[in-house]
Amino acid sequence: MTLAGHLKSWSGAALRHIPAGSSLDVLDFRYAGRGADNRWNEPGALTLYLAGDEGVLIAEWGRHFATSRTAQLQQMTVERNAFSIELSIDYVLDLRSEDVCNALPIDNAPYCFADINVARATAHFVRSTTAAQALLVPSMGFLDDLERWCLVAFLEKLPPDPRSFISAVTPRGPLRWG
Q1: What angle do CA 137, 36, 142 make, to 5 degrees?
Q2: What is the C-alpha to C-alpha distance for residues 52 and 148, in angstroms, rounded to an integer?
Q3: Where are the domains of the chain?
Q4: Can you list the positions of beta strands (E) in the chain?
Q5: Residues 100/60, Cβ–Cβ less than 8 Å
Q6: How far apart are CA 60 and CA 49, in angstroms?
Q7: Burial class (CB in 10 A: 0-12, 13-18, 19+), 174
Q8: Are 164 and 171 in contact (CB under 8 A)?
Q9: What is residue 131's three-state secondary structure?
């Protein structure tokens, strides 16, 4: 089966966090995917990362936590506001699926995705050669449990107004370290 045959629609709730006290709305994605150390996109490719549950949200937040930051950046890192986002996406490829990984072909999934170059190359290939608007990927914090996931959305392939694919946003509370 080709990759196109593995594309499925996806609807559900996922979690996002933003800096506490941010003047930006949680649906303002202008900075999404801009980090140089993102696993599933190259810097500059607008990519929205959402977590499947609270544990994944905390684990993925922890991956990016660094103590050697300026005072202003450290404050933005250690205090976050979490939101639940209800969304629907028409074309999603699930990289937790053995059949999907065999169709790519990818060896040693999901562990191969710990190599950022493999993850980025896979996402770039899917992003540029298929109609996929997002990937469901295993959380790096829970590679032993493929039910724990992240949604990686390719924002250039989704409508510019996020309210066309996001039906509800619910505040879930603060995250704070220290």
Answers
A1: 30
A2: 6
A3: 3-176
A4: 8-19, 47-51, 79-94, 134-138, 149-154, 166-176
A5: no
A6: 10
A7: exposed
A8: no
A9: coil
Token pair of 105, please? 């072909």
C-alpha distances out from residue 163 to 44, 53, 61, 103, 157, Å: 23, 22, 25, 33, 14
What token pair was written down for 138? 């295993």
**Contacts of residue 172, Cβ cutoff 8 Å, sequence gap at least 6:** 15, 54, 82, 83, 84
Quickly count: other Cβ atoms within 10 Å of residue 14's Cβ: 24
Euclidean distance between CA atoms 167 and 178, whole angstroms: 34
In Å, what is the CA distance from 150 to each residue of 15, 50, 63, 71, 104?
Answer: 9, 6, 13, 29, 19
Question: Mind listing the pLDDT tens digit of every residue in the chain (178 residues)?
Answer: 789 999 999 999 999 999 888 899 999 999 898 878 889 999 889 999 999 999 999 988 876 665 555 555 555 567 889 999 999 999 999 999 999 999 998 999 999 999 999 999 999 999 999 999 999 999 999 999 999 999 999 999 999 999 999 999 999 988 887 6
Determine the Cα–Cα distance for residues 18 and 25; give it in Å rounded to an integer.
9
